[in-house]
Amino acid sequence: MAKKVLVVDDEKLIVKGIRFSLEQDGMEVDCAYDGQEALDLATSNHYDMILLDVMLPKLDGFEVCQNIREFSTVPIVMLTAKGDDMDKILGLEYGADDYITKPFNILEVKARIKAIMRRASLGQSVRTEHREENVIEDGDLVLDKSNRRLTILGEEYNLTSKEFDMLVLLVTNPKKVFSREDLLHKIWGEDYPGDERTVDVHVRRLREKIEPNPKEPKYVRTKWGVGYYYM
């Protein structure tokens, strides 16, 4: 089945170029030119990837991303014309999985899309015969790897794909400390061009979601000067 991508940008020439290139690779592409249109499409369709510009009419890319994260873990790559790191970090704070700075090379965009889709497909294709092997239980925390669901004390928490993958890695290696570099390579891949601050942003966001007190984390802890671990 062809992969389906939503491309969102108010610059029609950019959308046209990306759409043509992705369709050449056999992907199905929907297009939106403002934030509200993008949100409507994301609500009513299933996508394997969303390319989302930051600067959009009606709703900006951050608002769209935040709204999508209320109901979906679809990989979202932010497109930004600004070189300011704050835009990139804000994108991650609102639930984006990656970012690409304009002007970009379409080959880079395609390579990034394929890498993310490949990792997502590998994660979804790992299935075992018994449900018990797909469920990780530790105290009041339950991770269902098949359905990519987290519940704590019976309450479900909506995590992004990267947050979920990071938590699974930490929980399945209790007390093992992973450096930021380790987590970047294991969760984002060896070819990911971002820096280690990406890990810090995702850990902070994960703590804000699941920790009773993010300033005194119960689950995802810090080994100062080394990295993060699960206790």
From TrEMBL:
Q: Tell me where in this chain the OmpR/PhoB-type domain is found.
A: 133-231
Q: Name one GO molecular function term.
A: transcription cis-regulatory region binding
Q: Which residues form the Response regulatory domain?
A: 4-117
Q: Residue ranges of the DNA-binding region?
A: 133-231
The UniProt entry, under Gene3D superfamilies, shows: 3.40.50.2300, 6.10.250.690, Winged helix-like DNA-binding domain superfamily/Winged helix DNA-binding domain (1.10.10.10)
- One term under GO cellular component: protein-DNA complex
For whether the record's keyword set contains Transcription, the answer is yes
Q: What's an example GO BP annotation here?
A: regulation of DNA-templated transcription
Q: Which SUPFAM superfamilies match?
A: C-terminal effector domain of the bipartite response regulators (SSF46894), CheY-like (SSF52172)
Which PROSITE patterns does this UniProt record tie to the protein? OMPR_PHOB, RESPONSE_REGULATORY
Which InterPro entries is this protein grouped with? CheY-like_superfamily (IPR011006), OmpR/PhoB-type_DNA-bd (IPR001867), Sig_transdc_resp-reg_C-effctor (IPR016032), Sig_transdc_resp-reg_receiver (IPR001789), WalR-like (IPR039420), WH-like_DNA-bd_sf (IPR036388)
Swiss-Prot/TrEMBL keywords: DNA-binding, Phosphoprotein, Transcription, Transcription regulation, Two-component regulatory system
Give the sites modified to 4-aspartylphosphate. 53
Explain the purpose of this protein.
Answer: May play the central regulatory role in sporulation. It may be an element of the effector pathway responsible for the activation of sporulation genes in response to nutritional stress. Spo0A may act in concert with spo0H (a sigma factor) to control the expression of some genes that are critical to the sporulation process.
**What protein name is recorded for this chain?**
Stage 0 sporulation protein A homolog
Organism per entry: Pseudobutyrivibrio ruminis
